[in-house]
Design the sequence.
């Protein structure tokens, strides 16, 4: 989940302004007008008009009347990112098995700064209409996948997240740094993280890290479902096993 407005570019340069415009699109956006993009980026509307026109001509955006959406060229470029492509291709078979065994929604996510980015999502009929989407972002400290990754990340990655206010998505989100530190220590001991309506009301999640060299997390797998229908502890062994198996499959 992103904030209502993307901060203005730190440097007044064309590349930073282009990055601001592209970064202003959110998961779930169909098409967005120049006025809304200007509001989200803090850039002048005339500047947004000029940049979006250039990006449409380059195929990075697509025009829909007076609005624009992310273009197919961006998707094609994203598929060439080595880490994401290799990780996703290796993970999908294990995610499919986990979904079939549990009949719940399965996520694969990676950490990017203070947020997790969903690399893959496999839904199941009858599952909760989760707001997550491939390419979507959510504050790491408020999610099961985020906490699973942070629990197996170096202090240099975790400490900056604890230095400022922790975002609150629901009344159950952990916002006290001390409580989060204790939670991360427990996750590191047990290898399993839980999201009990912390990222969204009525939804619960169990997650486990996918580890790389030095037993540091490179991603996390999760299982999500309705709180009223899913007991996370029951599914924890299956999620943990899937993450461990994926960890082994990714080893050189």
Sequence:
């Amino acid at each position: 989940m992103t904030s209502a407005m993307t901060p203005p570019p730190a440097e007044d340069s064309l590349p930073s302004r282009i990055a601001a415009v592209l970064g202003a699109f959110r998961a779930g956006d169909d098409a967005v007008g120049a006025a809304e993009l200007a509001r989200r980026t803090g850039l002048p509307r005339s500047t947004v008009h000029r940049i979006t026109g250039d990006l449409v001509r380059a195929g990075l955006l697509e025009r829909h009347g007076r609005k624009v959406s992310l273009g197919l060229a961006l998707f094609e470029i994203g598929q060439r990112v080595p880490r994401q492509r290799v990780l996703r291709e290796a993970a999908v078979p294990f995610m499919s098995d986990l979904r079939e065994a549990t009949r719940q929604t399965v996520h694969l996510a990676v950490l990017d700064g203070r947020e997790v980015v969903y690399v893959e999502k496999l839904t199941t009929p009858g599952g909760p209409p989760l707001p997550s989407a491939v390419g979507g972002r959510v504050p790491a400290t408020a999610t099961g996948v985020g906490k699973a990754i942070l629990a197996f990340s170096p202090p240099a990655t975790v400490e900056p997240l604890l230095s400022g206010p922790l975002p609150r998505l629901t009344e159950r989100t952990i916002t006290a740094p001390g409580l989060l530190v204790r939670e991360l220590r427990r996750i590191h001991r047990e290898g399993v993280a839980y999201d009990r309506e912390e990222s969204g009301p009525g939804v619960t999640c169990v997650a486990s890290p996918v580890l790389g060299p030095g037993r540091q997390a490179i991603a996390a797998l999760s299982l999500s479902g309705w709180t009223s229908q899913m007991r996370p502890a029951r599914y924890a062994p299956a999620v943990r096993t899937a993450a461990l198996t994926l960890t082994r499959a990714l080893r050189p």
